[in-house]
Batch of 3 targets.
Target 1
Amino acid sequence: MRLVGKPNSIVTEQTIIEYVTDDIKKDSMSNFSKLFDSRDTVPLPLIMLFFTHLTDLVNMGMDIHNDQSPSSSLSWDSEHFHSIIIGIILRGDLESIDYIFQLGLKHNKNYRINDIKNQLDDCDAPTLSHLLDKGYISLDDYEITYTLTSLINSAFREGRLEIIKLIHSRCTTPSQLSKYLPSSSAIYEASHNNNHKILSYLFEGVDDPMGPPSVFKRAYSKRNTTTLLKAVRHHSIVEYGNLKIIDMCNRLLID
């Protein structure tokens, strides 16, 4: 299937369709998921070709929880299917994301991708926003909390403020926001990496009297911010010398 649509390739969609057998279908999900092991583009027409002709899932009008549901190797809950959808998500292919989820919802009206563990660490902000807007993932789903918390920590380490603000902006209550605060180690790593803007957002909020307060205050967090600020300042003074971070810590500790 890698050759379909490639320049000078004689392999066409019709070629694939003609050679499909039941034996080929048995391992199709496993084999197709390997296409996503690399960063190569897997276009939507190829994805549609696969699910339409190399699986029976598109034409099966049944819920995956029905006794007649497909075998585990072909089900929407299989490891191989999750590899495919994670590959699509990390490529930021919104059309393909919608296609896959619509198929999943066809088989199970409550379909979600909860079992993705910490595999969204490299997800970009537009794709994450799309997943949340469409309801494909939800901040209220217990299973997704660990995954998004892992993403928050990764974003703190790497300075991806847009990811952090996006998740926090979707939190509607202090208790929900408190679930998506970074770990202490992620905060220290942000200091190590001189991510002043990240730390300012966390401890100071918006530098505007009319703007929102710090994230800790909005979450009614019980964490000892004084201890955190002292630790951040220590890292900055002893190891990295970021003057903006040191000034921020001094100012907040005095206040």
Target 2
Amino acid sequence: MDVMEDLFRSGVNTPLGSFIQQVLLTEATVLGVQNLPGGRYPFIEEFFYTFQASVLGHELGVIKKVYGPGPYAVGFFLLTVLYAMTYYPNIYANSASTIHKFAHEKRMTVLELAVHLSVQISACLVAHQYVNWVWSSEIFHSLVLHWDPLSPCKTDIKVPLPLAITVEATLTFAAKLFGHGKSQLPLGLLLHCAVILGLSLIGGPYTGGYFNPSLAFSLQYRCNGHTDAEFFAVYFLGPTIGAFFLENMPIEYGKK
């Protein structure tokens, strides 16, 4: 099915239309939270950053299912750019990034780390319920019957568990490594986002290539083919291991 033909034929009542709608709604929410009266509220921002990443991750999954990997890759890249341009530094929608920050800066207590992770996981759970409500609503009822986006998903873990954990850890390590030096890279932000997309495509045949617990949660939580323990081992433990390995690397950028 042609993407633009689908959009113009049916308006917002399509997977692409829903995707655009959710981008606008969640981005407006994020910008609103960033400009609340009385200053900034990091935990509230973190909740809605994670909520947005999880919701749009699910919408991207529907885009991939309906239109194929090409539009999915374009959407993935554009969303990565959007997140990088919108989100304030040092507030994350990625548990692995939070753990990396905890290990790197040494200024976050274990209790604060636990609160951050609790906020992110709560946002993922709320987003999971939200997208189910959206696609079950009267507006998209016909789409549920036609495209069946709420049908039980299948696991993206296609390799033995130890290898799957290693894949997600390696992808996280590579993504963070490029992220450390993106200001010194040609085209900086854009190249970094392209690298993230490339890593996702490389890991796709093995684990889905998520290396972001929030994204994995929206697309893989409770899918058929893996247990909850396997899900958390691959998509939470794997990226955490990658983040910790990076912390022990003597990385210096911008020096000759």
Target 3
Amino acid sequence: MRLSILVTAAAASLLLVACSPKTETEAAAAADHAGAAAASAASDTAVNTEAAADATVAAARNAAGATADAAGTAARKTDAAVDAAAEQK
């Protein structure tokens, strides 16, 4: 959404270039600002995507650790149940 607004602003700036030297200067500055804003938005998106990927990896690692812990607990409980059953025979 932000990018489409910036592209529209840049296109409008280019249309104004033919009006006067002052307008041309202002349009060039507006186009420069639009380009900088687009670059900034792209950079922010990349940073946010990387942070989200890092968070996903961390969550997956935590889930794997919790699963391993649960499997260990289940194994210990199974062993205890087998031992208890063997003692009752």
